[in-house]
Amino acid sequence: MEHVDQNAVGTLLTVYTDIDLLALELCADRIGTAPTLEAKLELAHQVEEERIHFRIQEKWLATIGMPFRSPIDPLHRKAILERFSRMDWFDFLSCLQIGIEGIGISLVEKVASRADEGTRASLEIPIRDEKRQTSFGLSELRRIVSEASPEEREDLTERLLANLNDLYTMAEECLPVRFEDYWSRLGLTREEMWETVHQKTLEMFEALGLSRALPEAFSCK
Fold this sequence. Notes:
Layout: H1 6-30, H2 37-63, H3 74-85, H4 89-113, H5 117-146, H6 150-174, H7 179-185, H8 190-207, H9 216-219
């Protein structure tokens, strides 16, 4: 059996687990101001899914001797929550459902493909659910895009690009992990991972009926 760097896998899984917890907090905070009843119910559903994801991964981390400790310090966490709370529905969905759940989960899938059997099992339900969450975000955003004029579509494209740029900057500031170091320990190259990000990002723009584009923060990688 091929050796798996358990420390690398556990470190990355700890980050993913904390992001699930953060997504739970973001969705819970947004329920009251979601624009429709369906949106409120969907966010409530996601809160429960994220709770389940957190518990599954928390249990596995304890099993491999790496008990969960949040890598996001409290001040950064507060800043993230406050920033999301100021977003309108389009920006919120762009960052959470497209950036974190959509593009982010494509990287989690790559890591899972190189992880041990127990870690893959701990990620199976989260990966499945987060694809469903992304589908909801895409549906809501497509509705907004479909109602926009050509000029407004150009503006929405620029806003989506800006949101993804901001999300990347936020992740660099708030996550004290050099991801590329841990990817390489699992045999995943920097180029391979960024190509995954590029492909998924372009797919998202195409699914929204927007011109295919990459955020500046992604295009130079």
